[in-house]
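Instructor's aside before we start: the two examples that follow are unrelated to each other. I chose them only because their records fit on one page, so don't look for a connection. First example below.
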Amino acid sequence: MTASSVLTDEAVLKAYKVLAPVVTHTPLQYSAYLSQKYNCNVYLKREDIQAVRSFKIRGAYYAISQVPDDVRQRGVVCASAGNHAQGVAWTSAKMAIPATIFMPVTTPKQKIDQVKFFGGDKSKIELVGDTFDAANAAAVAFSEAHNQTFIAPFDDLNTMAGQGTLAVEVFNDAQEQSKSIDFLFAAIGGGG
C-alpha cells in the first residue's frame, strides 16, 4: 500500500499524466443496440483495445512506475489469473525489468500464452495452487524472500490510481464532445 489510505483525485490525475504517453486513449463508442434497447444514449469505454485488451495495463504500469528505479531493477512480482498478469508482463518488457508472475495451475492456457507473449524474456511464470489466493500467497512470500516488489492486482492505491485514469478519459471525452453523463456504470468484480 502507498502512504495514504484513501485514493484521491490528485493521485488519479498524477497517474493520468504518467500514463498518457504509454497507454492507448480508448474511445467512448456509441452502442446503437444498447441505446435502442434502453431508450437512451449508451457509450462504452473501449478498454478492450488496449495492448493487453484490458484496463489492467493502466494499474500495472503505474504501480510499477512508482517503484524507485534501483528497486524496480531487482524485479517485480505479481499474482493474477490473467489480465493483471498481462499488464505486469507487458510493463516488464517495456521497462526491461524482470517479473515473476504467479498464476493458479487452473489458469487457462490462452491466458498463460498471452502473459508469455507480452512479457517475452523478461517475465517468468510460476503456476502455483488451485486458486488465486494460493498463487497470491506464494507471490508475496517469493517477493519477500527475493527482495522484490509485489505489485498487487487491486489492493494498492497506485494500482487503483492507474486504473482510475480511464475515468479521466471518460469525463474529458464527454466534455470535449459536449455529451452529458447522467449515469456512469462500472463493473465491480474480483476486486480489480
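Example two begins here.
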Amino acid sequence: MATVQYMSYYDSPLGKLYILAHDNGLTHIIFEREEGNQLPVNIGDIEFNDDVPVIQDAKLWLSIYFNGGNPDFMPPLSMAGTDFRMEVWNVIKQIPYGQTMTYGEIARLVGEKRGRRASAQAVGGAVGSNPIPVIVPCHRVLGADGAITGYSGGVDKKKFLLGLEKINFIE
C-alpha cells in the first residue's frame, strides 16, 4: 500500500513554503521560486490537507520561529537519504538556535563517527540537499571563516534566517 503524501502551504516572511509530509513525518519544505518549483513528487499523487497533525506541527513550529521564538519541539521528520547524508543532517539538527557550525566542524564529527575522514566539500553537498530547510537548520552552517557560502533557498534567505536568530556572519 502506497503512503499518502500530503501537502500544504505556509506564508512566511521569505515567501510561500510548500510543506510535504507523510502520516509519520515531514518529508520536505520547499521555498517557492519565481522561476517555478520542482516538487519531489508528482502533483497528482498529493493530497492537499491542512488537518494532518504533522503539517499542523510544522506550521506551529514555523509560526513560533518566524515570530522570533525558539521552538521547543521538533515536528516528526521522515527524511530519506544516503547514510552519509543522514549523518550530516543529524549533526545539523543538533546545532542550537542562535549558533553555527562550519562545514569542516561537521566533517570532523561525521568522520569521527564513521571512523574515516569526511571532507568539508562532501558535507557541503549533503547540507545543500537537506530536504527540510529552516526546521533542519542548514542555514546555521557557515564557511570556515564565518562566511555565508550558499543556501538552497538563496543566500538572501540564509541572511534573513541568520539575522532572525541574531547570528553574526561574514558576507
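The chain has a mean pLDDT of 90.
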